[in-house]
Specification:
heterodimer; A: mainly alpha; 2 domains; B: five-stranded antiparallel beta sheet; 8 helices; 20 strands; elongated; binds adenosine-5'-triphosphate; binds magnesium ion; transport (chain B); ABC transporter ATP-binding protein (chain B); ATP binding (chain B)
Chain lengths: 302, 371
């Protein structure tokens, strides 16, 4: 018998014994993943289907069933006419408030965090580590502790109850996190590049803009997602510092759900809740892709 | 008149002193090569000259002007970094042109300069690529290009050829030498490569643990090393440093070296250095370069002082142009460099000739040269 023949069956059995369990394991993994996905998506499903049902249908029955007489009335109502607090304005103005608060707050806190990280890693000064330590500490301060001093500060600055006031609050509170993100990212950024740019004659801001920022994609995305979600979802600062015409979405949603007189319009509540969640979802979906792409580019660079 | 002067320079990181009282100077158009083992402070010294690291004490002068407190961009230097330091988000052309762009050089002029340098470095086909799409050697050439595109007072090169393959490295070495002869710009150059150091330098500075060991022309460093460290560091294969004893021979001082299973070798010293008399009866380190230890036919006929002795050959290593033979003296393996066609067999005894006028002696305690 030649060795080639005796090897044949051996190889075959080895091959089949590795393929079969592989497939089984794969199937099991997928089954588990699908199960988890359903489990996680179930609340969203419940919200979505019930926001499209007329109120009677919800009252009669099954939370999980699809709408029989589908309607977008609850969405329109939640958006434009629902009673929030005393006014029947819907969530629209509050949604705008949130946008006006979140966009500048995210932008400013991210930009400042990037600058802080740049200075703390590439232009280190005596005591830079202490400064960074103190900023880190800011991440651990509970919201509640800063409430009263912050109210006082806003009063002094004349920003109490305004959207710029809320922006300031969120920028100050977020700065610790954004600085942490950027500092750690830039710490791994080669200092030689900064030195080379210095020799090339680039100024402090030119180096930041031309050398560091173009390589900061992934960390910018991480920071923006983090800040956007936190600020958009914040309730406590909004409830504490906003006045009637600067109330953000989260607080308005709460008012919609808890203060409506008479019948509880679950379908409207569900629609409003989805509206409140939508922007963060969109941010995740849109920038998540860039996030992954940024990570891949970094990995290949070596 | 020296162009670049480094006076009593000291540099500490925290309380770790990395450079200790360095004094160096090089004339305009000179080529200073810094050598030394890894971590001895070569890159740090270069960074202080560039102004990228503040110095702790001392003074740096370029063209007679004190530059201690001058910003890197104002010192009129161009630098090639050990890690290339290419801007990852820019193409090769943008990398090379960045300095000019910042300085406001108009675009057509910039493009002409980039094209000229790219052609010289054979990277003209890569101009539109990003650094991440280049091989190590190509990146290194881009880094060179970024410096060469300018016409500074001083070039600072930190191991610019370390990642190139052997052939390209030789080409680039010649190219740098030619460039230096043509432009006449002062260069400070860090390298690990002996041959680069010897061929390029007008002056070599040998550093160890942040201390300048010796500063001199390549031939001074090679032929008159000031201590065993310099002797051992420069040259490949390294100088043989043989433990030996100074004895009183018939015609004056002689040197005696132990041999395994044979009586010691004694070589008469026709013209020993003056200081050696004090070592009579004491041990010294006898330094002889492999090329000063040859087969009798290959010996230098013009040498002033030659001694021949029979040695037991342990290993023979033909290397093409030469044949290296290893024998045992003073308890150490000793390398001799013979002619390529020398008829020599391992495991036999063969006559070897010491060129004593090329040999040096060191104190075994201080490791300094005995003069
Ligand atoms: N920023 C820094 N902080 C603290 N120590 C440093 C710093 N930079 C360099 N050193 C130390 O200074 C010493 C000299 O470093 P340097 O980079 O100059 O060595 P080198 O001679 O260039 O070595 P190599 O040949 O490996 O490039 C090393 O011991 C290093 O650990
Ligand atoms: Mg170095």
């Amino acid at each position: 018998m030649t060795s080639a023949v005796s090897q044949g069956p051996l190889e075959a059995s080895r091959a089949s014994s590795t393929v079969a369990p592989n497939r089984l394991a794969r199937a099991l993994i997928y089954a588990a993943l699908i199960l988890f996905a359903i489990y996680y998506l179930l609340p969203l499903y419940v919200m979505l289907v019930n926001s499209l049902k007329p109120l009677d249908e919800i009252r009669q029955g099954d939370m999980l069933s699809l709408p029989m007489a589908g309607t977008i009335e609850p969405w329109l109502k939640a958006w434009a006419t629902a009673q929030i607090g005393v006014q029947p304005t819907g969530l629209k103005p509050y949604f705008m408030n949130s946008i006006l608060m979140v966009v500048p707050a995210v932008f400013i806190s991210t930009a400042l965090g990037a600058l802080n990280g740049y200075v703390l890693t590439k232009w280190t000064f005596r005591g830079a580590d202490i400064v960074f330590g103190l900023m880190l500490l800011a991440c651990f301060i509970p919201f509640q502790i800063v409430l009263i001093p912050m109210a006082r500060m806003l009063g002094i600055l004349g920003l109490a109850g305004t959207i710029p006031g809320l922006v300031l609050v969120h920028v100050v509170y977020g700065l610790g996190f954004t600085t942490l993100f950027f500092r750690n990212y830039y710490a791994a950024f080669p200092s030689e590049l900064v030195k080379a740019a210095q020799i090339d004659g680039a100024s402090f801001f030119q180096i930041f803009r031309r050398i560091l920022l173009p390589s900061s994609g992934p960390i910018i995305v991480v920071t923006v997602i983090w800040q956007f979600t936190n600020i958009w979802n914040d309730f406590l600062f909004g409830a504490s510092f906003a006045s009637v015409d600067s109330i953000p979405m989260t607080v308005a949603l709460n008012n919609l759900v808890s203060s409506s007189t008479g019948v509880k319009e679950y379908n409207v509540h569900f629609a409003g809740a989805i509206m409140a969640a939508l922007p963060t979802l969109i941010v995740y979906i849109v920038s998540g892709r860039y996030f992954v792409r940024g990570l891949m580019a970094g990995a290949v660079k070596g | 008149m020296s162009f670049l002067q480094i006076i009593d320079l000291e540099k500490s990181f925290g309380n770790v002193q990395v450079l200790k009282r360095i004094n160096l100077e090089i004339e305009e158009g000179g080529f200073l090569v810094l050598v030394g083992p890894s971590g001895c402070g070569k890159s740090t010294l270069l960074n202080t000259i560039a102004g990228l690291e503040p110095i702790t004490a001392g003074e740096i002068r370029i063209g007679g002007r004190r530059v201690n407190d001058l910003h890197p961009s104002k010192r009129d230097i161009a630098m090639v970094f050990q890690s290339y330091a290419l801007y990852p988000n820019m193409t090769v052309a943008q990398n090379i042109g960045f300095g000019m762009e910042i300085r406001g050089v108009p675009k057509p002029e910039r493009e002409k300069a980039i094209a000229r340098v790219a052609e010289m470095l054979q990277i003209d086909h890569l101009l539109d690529r990003k650094p991440s799409q280049l091989s190590g050697g190509q990146r290194q050439r881009v880094a060179m290009g970024r410096a060469l595109v300018r016409d500074p007072q001083v070039f600072l090169f930190d191991e610019p050829l370390s990642n190139l393959d052997a052939k390209l490295r030789v080409d680039m070495r010649t190219e740098i030498k030619r460039l230096h002869q043509r432009m006449g710009t002062t260069i400070v150059y860090v390298t690990h490569d002996q041959i680069e150091a010897m061929t390029l330098a007008s002056k070599i500075a040998v550093l160890k643990d942040g201390v300048l060991q010796q500063f001199g022309t390549p031939s001074e460093i090679y032929n008159n090393p000031i201590n065993t460290f310099v002797a051992d560091f420069m040259g490949s294969p390294a100088m043989n440093l043989i433990p030996a004893t100074i004895t009183n021979g018939a015609g004056g001082l002689a040197i005696e070296m132990e041999r395994p299973s044979a009586p010691p070798v004694t070589l008469p010293l026709a013209s020993p250095p003056k200081g050696l008399a004090a070592y009579k009866g004491r041990s010294v380190i006898f330094g002889v370069r492999p090329e000063a230890l040859t087969d009798p036919d290959g010996a230098d006929r013009n040498a002033a002082s030659i001694a021949q002795t029979e040695c037991f050959i342990e290993v023979v290593e033909p290397a093409g142009s030469d044949t290296f033979a290893v024998t045992h003296l003073g308890g150490k393996g000793v390398i001799a460099r013979l002619r390529a066609d020398a008829n020599i067999q391992p495991g036999t005894t063969a006559p070897l000739t010491f060129n004593l006028s090329k040999s040096v002696f060191f104190d075994p305690e201080t490791e300094n040269r005995i003069l």
